[in-house]
Amino acid sequence: MLTSPAREKNYAQFPDRQSFRVYLEDLRDPTARDRLVRIWTDPQSLDPARQSARVTREIAESLAVVSKALEAEGHQPEEVAMFLMRCLFTMFAQSVGLLPANSFRDLLQRCEQDPERLRPMVGQLWEAMDRGDFAIALETRVRRFNGEFFKTRTVLPLAEAEIGELRRAASYDWREVDPSIFGTLLEQALDKDERRRLGAHYTPRAYVERLVVATVLEPLRADWANALSTAERQKSEGRTDAAIATIRAFHEALCRTRVLDPACGTGNFLYVSLELLKRLEGEVLEALSDLGGQEAFAGLEGHTVDPHQFLGLEINPRAAAIAELVLWIGYLQWHLRTQSGFPAEPILRAFHNIMVKDAVLEADVSLARDKSGKPVTRRGPEGTEVEVCRYDNPRQPEWPEAEFIVGNPPFIGGKDLRGRLGDEYAEAL
Fold this sequence. Notes:
Blueprint: E1 3-7, E2 10-13, H1 30-41, H2 48-72, H3 77-96, H4 103-113, H5 118-131, E3 134-135, E4 140-141, H6 160-170, H7 179-190, H8 205-236, H9 240-256, E5 259-261, H10 268-292, E6 310-314, H11 317-338, E7 354-356, E8 362-367, E9 377-379, E10 385-387, E11 389-395, E12 404-405, H12 416-421, H13 423-428
Helix pairs in contact: 2-3, 2-6, 2-7, 3-11, 4-6, 7-10, 7-11, 8-9, 8-10, 9-10, 10-11
């Protein structure tokens, strides 16, 4: 049995609960033999964070090139972001088998040779992914993805060089992309002011996990320990049905548990919370199987910890969209790594769990105008002129109900508040 300390008290099987045991039959697989050799000769090389951080940063660098080219052509940042996120999810889908292997990479390679093909071929592919239809470019029917990503299927025109950058990004194994840093790197790749320090700053996974373990996982583990102890006592008394009911009740409560990040950015804290709850759910389902075998799972089909439980508020529409993508990629990575078969269609669901919203101030917002009707401006923190807004009827916004709240504290305070946000916002707040 191989285990790795995820962080301090939070230990987990390596690489996951489905494959941490190495059986004699597995030694026929050169990958399993290589893993055993490296455990003794180079254990640090097995750290998944090392490989995923490199791959994630290199993908972000390619996306930054494409984003910069599209902005130079006059496309709006949000339009660029949504186009690239559709590309990214399609790359992920081909890596994990939701689309034929390397199919999107090969399509981009054909478009690289003839850029005029890009818009009709990729557009029709995304239409097929939305509906679960035949994709002409892939010459096969594809699964129905649905959700929100492919409802709008705008394909932005790209030159040969930029299509080449997308093709390079599609050549990576997206199973190695770490969602907990992917969102931040993607946001930087899409933000012209952040591009120059791509990957230079994000909340490290270790810090995020330390906070989420203390805030969310330890209380849930205490409840799980109580439930498991009760079930073991019930089983020892010959009441196996009652023991199964106890475990199922805890699983039901876990699937109702909601985690809120009221300033979620690109979703790092929510993704880590999702992964840790999925780990705990794996233990619960294993205990259920030990008690009653497959019969104990009757009625649980499709009932699982999933992205709808992870709620976010985010004032930046682009970051909010990235957070939703991060949650789905993380959830599907986990499912495909630990379950046999693919999730039921539609693969994606429009849960609307990430809301574009100011978490601390709600008001009737309008542009401030002078006596002649012209917009009033002020000098912003970067020295540029920004329009001044009025905040009438300021009030406290409603947050969605949740059992746990996680996230980074605000970065702005004290003397910086007026300078960064303006007098009008500060006074309304």
